[in-house]
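Sequence design from tokenized structure. All designs in this work follow the same two-part layout: the structure record, then the generated sequence. An example of the structure record is given first.
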């Protein structure tokens, strides 16, 4: 699953990023790198940017860039999603 597909307020772990080296470095400065927990807080309208939270840092990221970040939904978050759907 990519970061762009992650449901709102669902905790996930970043597995790999396929971004340019420059963007990878800028995002790493914000705390976004492999093995980090991340969640999508808000989605912009009309394919707008995503508001993300990594630890105590919130920032915006374009959806095209978010599609290049592979994440794994954490087990507790998966259980919460199933409970909400039932």
């Amino acid at each position: 699953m990519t970061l762009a597909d992650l449901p709102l307020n669902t905790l996930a772990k970043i597995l790999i990023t396929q971004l340019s080296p420059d963007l990878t470095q800028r995002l790493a400065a914000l705390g976004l790198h492999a093995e980090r927990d991340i969640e999508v807080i808000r989605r912009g309208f009309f394919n707008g940017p995503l508001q993300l939270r990594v630890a105590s840092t919130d920032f915006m990221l374009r959806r095209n860039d978010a599609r290049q970040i592979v994440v794994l939904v954490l087990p507790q978050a998966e259980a919460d999603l199933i409970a909400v759907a039932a």
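The chain has one domain: 3-85. We note this feature because it recurs in several other targets discussed in the main text.
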